[in-house]
Design the sequence.
């Protein structure tokens, strides 16, 4: 079965000959094996950031290179951006799997609201008044979160069951869920807001207390860099074992260096954002520290919700790339009939994907409610659209079969950057919606062009 | 050729009185067919004669309404593709049934992935195996990193064939295996069929092309309107007689008539 249409040469010499025909950019991409779409996303993000920075500087009449504290590219703004992005980014990582399997989940925002209400009710009323735990008992946040996770899993399992086994289209099931869970959220406390939340639970929302401080941030950064180096090295060993083509050493070094620089840069940024003066003074008074002249500098460091989002991103990437389950999700998205004929239990996989989505909605609910230190029945309203938009901007195809967790999370960051930036610029909220909507459509249009050309 | 491979022991596959209906239409009606080790049985018939449906029952894609399947003389309760694979039944579907968005190795091992000691996918090992088997079928194939949608028709076909022979199949079902291929590639598939046959694998070959079938098959089985018209050794009937079976349902003297044979008024 020799094939004459193949455009790939059979021997390494021809391979090299071919490589020399490529342009410098082509050679660079081939050597580093980078995904051009992902590079495009990073580029778009940088353009948006720099654009917002320049515009916000010009509006204030300051030099953009001075990095005035009221402009976009400041530790404070970027730190806040990272915290604001976490909840949507976490749900977007699960939405990738849902959309890859040619389904959709319109209910995540409402599910988030219901789960947030239930967790709030659990920690403020149920566990304290009915079970009789003391306020501040360390078990409260654990139990509240466990109840939330169980509920998220149950909601996902139920919707997944109806979609996979009763064969009702996902669009309809989750559209129903959008209404049902929002209504149920109201019912938990007849619409009353639950506040304040458990002190430990609140740490999941970030803020000065909910961040890990400078020292631990550096430690996390160094460990992450070591992990990157190890992963690159391990990949090389594996390829050598089977005599597969290797990346040139310079490409490996460049990849490692750039990744580590980005990680350490992010840590440095988080460590450059100090606690507000009021909180520092209160902290100093409580710990008998004398505040030096000019104020005490205590860095936030990386926020806990951001760490949670990074952890979710890593786990979800691992699931999609390295496990059989992830492989099946993509195979089903590519050709459901082929997956079925290959003996894959497509229904059970569908149900599991929705269960994962439910769990991620719980984590997002914990972060969002902890951040506002209250559970309201409006929590997560319209989040489903942000989550779907993030996944789609991140390159997830609504036709199914393709998408990446990293792309979706970057998509979430991109959307949030636009939104925060417009708030910073004082753009009216109706205009914000118009811009976000237009960007979504343009991003998908550009992606369509990209797919046709590659 | 038929004499040389004359079957002696129990049939590899014996499908007895199989029936299946889709919404009142009897796609397969009381069909029986058997296959011996090292034998190629050509399954012929018009579009909609029921040959693909009958074979999909064997591969587990459809669940039969009635009838029994025996593998090596023992009853095999096949009700899904996984069951069929357990009995060493592999299928090359007419549609190829490839997941277009993943690469060749992922397709070859779909549903039977190799895993590392930690239970994660062992992509490197799978790719190494894929390189071996593809090297046998299509030595010039190098595009292991690309999703199969980017491959040419012939390459995709070789991926589908490689998947079927990768797991030491004992029974191979080939549903129009050469439909997407040029003459040279078709000849190579013929070569592969002879090679597998020599290894003692039983093959069901479904084809529109009666010449192909006569060249490769030891026996032919003709279906019409969901019923078996008759079965014959390729040496005992002519191509014209087989055409008569396909078109008219007329069973020639050299064939064993089935329930679908035209009843000649006595």
Sequence:
């Amino acid at each position: 079965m020799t094939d004459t249409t193949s455009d790939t040469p059979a021997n390494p010499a021809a391979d090299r000959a071919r490589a020399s025909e490529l342009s410098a950019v082509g050679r660079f991409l081939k050597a580093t094996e980078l995904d051009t779409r992902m590079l495009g996303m990073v580029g778009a993000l940088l353009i948006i950031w720099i654009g917002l920075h320049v515009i916000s500087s010009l509006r204030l009449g300051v030099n953009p290179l001075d990095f005035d504290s009221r402009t976009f590219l400041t530790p404070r703004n970027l730190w806040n951006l990272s915290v604001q992005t976490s909840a949507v980014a976490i749900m977007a990582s699960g939405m990738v799997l849902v959309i890859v399997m040619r389904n959709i989940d319109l209910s995540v925002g409402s599910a988030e609201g219901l789960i947030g209400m239930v967790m709030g009710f659990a920690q403020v009323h149920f566990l304290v008044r009915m079970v009789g735990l003391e306020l501040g008992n360390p078990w409260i946040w654990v139990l509240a979160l466990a109840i939330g996770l169980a509920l998220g899993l149950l909601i996902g399992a139920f919707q997944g069951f109806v979609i996979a086994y009763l064969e009702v289209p996902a669009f309809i099931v989750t559209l129903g869920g959008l209404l049902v869970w929002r209504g149920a959220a109201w019912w938990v406390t007849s619409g009353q807001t639950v506040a304040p939340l458990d002190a430990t639970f609140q740490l999941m929302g970030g803020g000065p207390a909910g961040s890990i401080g400078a020292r631990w941030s550096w430690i996390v950064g160094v460990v992450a860099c070591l992990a990157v180096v190890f992963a690159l090295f391990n990949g090389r060993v594996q390829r050598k074992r089977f005599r597969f083509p290797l990346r040139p050493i310079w490409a490996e070094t460049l990849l490692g260096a750039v990744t580590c620089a980005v990680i350490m840069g992010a840590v440095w940024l988080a460590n450059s954002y100090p606690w507000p003066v009021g909180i520092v003074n209160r902290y100093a008074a409580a710990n008998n520290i004398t505040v030096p002249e000019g104020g005490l500098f205590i860095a936030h460091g990386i926020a806990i919700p951001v760490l949670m989002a990074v952890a979710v991103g890593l786990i979800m990437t691992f699931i999609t790339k390295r496990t059989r389950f992830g492989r099946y999700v993509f195979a089903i998205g590519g050709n459901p009939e082929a997956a079925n004929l290959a003996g894959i239990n497509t229904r059970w996989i569908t149900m599991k994907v929705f269960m994962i989505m439910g769990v991620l909605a719980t984590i997002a609910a914990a972060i969002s409610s902890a951040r506002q230190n209250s559970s309201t029945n409006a929590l997560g309203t319209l989040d489903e659209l942000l989550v779907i938009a993030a996944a789609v901007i991140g390159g997830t195809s609504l036709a199914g079969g393709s998408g990446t967790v990293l792309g979706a999370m970057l998509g979430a960051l991109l959307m949030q950057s636009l939104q925060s930036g417009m708030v910073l610029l004082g753009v009216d909220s109706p205009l914000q919606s118009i811009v976000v909507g237009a960007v979504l459509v343009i991003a998908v249009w550009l992606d369509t062009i990209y797919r046709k050309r590659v | 050729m038929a004499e040389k491979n004359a079957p002696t022991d129990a049939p590899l596959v014996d499908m007895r009185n199989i029936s299946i209906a889709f919404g009142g239409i009897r796609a397969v009606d009381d069909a029986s067919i058997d296959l011996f080790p090292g034998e190629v049985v050509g399954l012929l018939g018009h579009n909609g004669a029921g040959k693909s449906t009958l074979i999909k029952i064997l591969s587990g894609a459809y669940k039969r309404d009635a009838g029994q399947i025996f593998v090596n003389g023992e009853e095999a309760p096949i009700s899904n593709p996984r069951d069929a694979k357990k009995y060493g039944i592999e299928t090359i579907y007419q549609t190829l049934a490839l997941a277009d968005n993943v690469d060749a190795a992922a397709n070859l091992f779909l549903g039977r992935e190799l895993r590392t000691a930690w239970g994660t996918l062992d992509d490197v090992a799978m790719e190494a195996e894929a390189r071996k088997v593809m090297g046998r079928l299509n030595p010039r194939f190098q595009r292991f990193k690309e999703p199969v949608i980017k491959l040419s028709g012939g390459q995709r076909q070789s991926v589908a064939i490689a998947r079927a022979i990768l797991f030491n199949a004992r029974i191979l079902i080939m549903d129009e295996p050469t439909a997407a291929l040029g003459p040279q590639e078709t000849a190579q598939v013929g070569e592969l069929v002879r090679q597998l046959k020599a290894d003692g694998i039983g093959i069901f070959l479904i084809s529109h092309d009666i010449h192909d079938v006569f060249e490769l098959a030891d026996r032919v089985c003709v279906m019409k309107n969901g019923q078996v018209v008759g079965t014959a050794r390729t040496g005992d009937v002519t191509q014209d007689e087989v055409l008569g079976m396909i078109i008219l349902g007329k069973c020639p003297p050299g064939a064993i008539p089935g329930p679908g044979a035209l009843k000649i008024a006595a």
The domain at 1-88+171-177+199-266 of chain B is CATH 3.40.50.300 (Rossmann fold). Residues 1-7 of chain B have pLDDT under 50 and may be disordered.
